[in-house]
């Protein structure tokens, strides 16, 4: 009985005591050319799309928090999970809800950047584009995110600089007329009574704008609850694949990761070893790697998984053409 007591105490500790670590490991993958819950992951409406084949899978990292001592030891001994100090994932001073909200915002921004990067690659012309419409704000119910703003009070605005310069000549309470184009709808005109904002002495419209390629059709991404910006590259490739003839992947199972900027530059991400493991487990034979992640990727190489190095969306498209035609794309 005396010998059994410490064993029982240790067992209770394993089952009850939590540790300040988070477990990271291979997460699920999603085919950006396929469907989730009956909806296309990348849905394009208002223009002709083309059939696709193969796979263009985005990859994720799974995350487990509130681990008991026993769970942490089991995951660590498995060799497939990585334990990280919790403060690196959830910084002190920020709640889990705040961090998750920030990750979801990054994910939404990656969707927008993916659309703009794909349209830019396909040579759609740039426009002053409403990125967000603040609610509450003077433009709610009059403008929508995604609108192209062409004229202010009859003055054409070709870029954000011209748009901002004109607004700086206005005053709070002034009514301005905006000519806009809206996706899948006729062009329109609306009048907005400008508000005031403490950070400026001119009129406040409540719209964040950017110079971005614009198309008259809509691109929607139907993949919820996946945080972070690292799906951008694969989203862009899916848009390009659906709007062009031929297949980017052919019969190849391609997976990958990487952030994407509005101008199509591919950026590095975290957890690439876990994402490669997830891709290989799902059946991928080709993995698109951001150039700055190549060293880490080669250190975590998976048998049977070809690593293709990419720096821009255009390079990724060219690399996939090389893969499907039997060529030699850049590799890590």
Features:
27% strand, Pdz3 Domain, single chain, 4-stranded antiparallel sheet, serine protease, 31% helix, protease, 332 residues, globular, Ribosomal Protein S5, domain 2, 2 domains, alpha+beta
Sum this structure up briefly.
With 332 residues, the protein is an alpha+beta fold.
Please render the helix and strand layout as text:
Layout: H1 4-16, E1 21-31, E2 35-36, E3 39-40, E4 42-45, E5 55-64, H2 69-78, E6 82-85, H3 86-89, H4 96-121, E7 126-133, E8 148-152, E9 155-156, H5 160-167, E10 175-181, E11 188-193, E12 207-213, E13 218-221, H6 232-243, E14 253-256, E15 259-260, E16 266-267, H7 272-282, E17 286-290, H8 294-299, E18 306-310, H9 313-324
Parallel strand pairs: 5-14, 14-17, 17-18
Antiparallel strand pairs: 1-5, 1-6, 2-3, 4-13, 7-12, 8-9, 8-10, 10-11, 15-16
Q: How does this structure look, described?
A:
Residues 225-323 form the Lon proteolytic domain. Belongs to the peptidase S16 family. Pfam families: Lon_C, PDZ_2. Keywords: Hydrolase, Protease, Serine protease. It is an enzyme of class 3 (hydrolase). There is one protein chain. This protein has 332 residues and is of the alpha+beta class. It has 2 domains: 23-62 and 78-123 and 217-325, Ribosomal Protein S5, domain 2 (2-Layer Sandwich); 126-213, Pdz3 Domain. The protein contains 9 helices and 18 strands. The chain has helices spanning 4-16, 69-78, 86-89, 96-121, 160-167, 232-243, 272-282, 294-299, 313-324; strands at residues 21-31, 35-36, 39-40, 42-45, 55-64, 82-85, 126-133, 148-152, 155-156, 175-181, 188-193, 207-213, 218-221, 253-256, 259-260, 266-267, 286-290, 306-310. The chain has a 6-stranded mixed sheet with strand order 6-1-5-14-17-18. Strand 10 (175-181) and strand 11 (188-193) form a beta hairpin. Helix 4 (96-121) packs parallel to helix 6 (232-243). The longest helix has 26 residues, at 96-121. It starts with a helix and ends in an 8-residue tail after the last helix.
